[in-house]
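Field guide to reading this record: the first block holds the primary sequence, the second block holds the structure written as discrete tokens, and the final block holds curator observations. Each block starts with its own label. This record concerns 3-methyl-2-oxobutanoate hydroxymethyltransferase, catalogued under organism Xylanibacter rodentium.

BLOCK 1 — SEQUENCE
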Amino acid sequence: TRKVTTHRLIEMKRKGEKISMLTSYDFTTAGIVDKAGMDVILVGDSASNVMAGNTTTLPMTVDQMIYHARSVVRGVNRALVVCDMPFGSYQTGDTDGVKNAIRIMKESGCDALKLEGGVEILDTVRRILDAGIPVMAHLGLTPQSINKFGTYAVRAKDEAEAEKLISDAKALDEAGCFGLVLEKVPAILATKVTKEISIPTIGIGAGNGTDGQVLVVADMLGMTQGFSPRFLRRYANLNSIMTEAIGHYIEDVKNGDFPNEKESY
Ligand code: KIV
Ligand code: NA
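BLOCK 2 — STRUCTURE
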């Protein structure tokens, strides 16, 4: 199986083939996701919520992202592995941004990076691209700016914010990004952006008009509880499957059924 490349993703958009993307944070899960045939695996800074139990993505560090990305890379053969640059690692300027970008690429072995923001980070994005690192952009609801937004509500519902998102998307496309995540924006806007730029758009809560879709693996497998935005489709209820299996194990330990003779040396 040939490794998915950023060029292949742009070709998929041209041909109208939808792009599948899902997060992973560890070797074992990434191996399953890759073998299932995923096009892109995102080592999201949502690891902050899913892996570490934080309420925002802000605490994530470069070292922690490298640890997760390195683990994922070891489990993947085919999918393109994209790693989020964490909060604080690129917002201080293009020199810091390109340094941290190079560090993540070297130490994790991932294929590309994702950064949140538009014109504000355009110089940094250009420097990272100039270093030979593929960049995926991320607009709409950008969780690293949650303290500015104050809410996880849908973004770009008003005309001014929608206009800015469109011009940001065009600027990021022209700068040479290979893809764009659109998070929690009206479907009509995401469709419009998708038609107006040459690089693939990957939506999460952005409707069906984007070139691909992304979800957080623990959410779509039903491991996480109490997070039910309308965009989330649950493909399994691993929480109840795990709870049941773990309950059986406890029972077997308590009643002395485990281990039996065949499970002993
Ligand atoms: O960190 C993450 O999981 C993400 C996706 C939701 C796009 O950035
Ligand atoms: Na993220």
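BLOCK 3 — OBSERVATIONS
The radius of gyration is 20 Å.
The longest strand covers residues 135-140.
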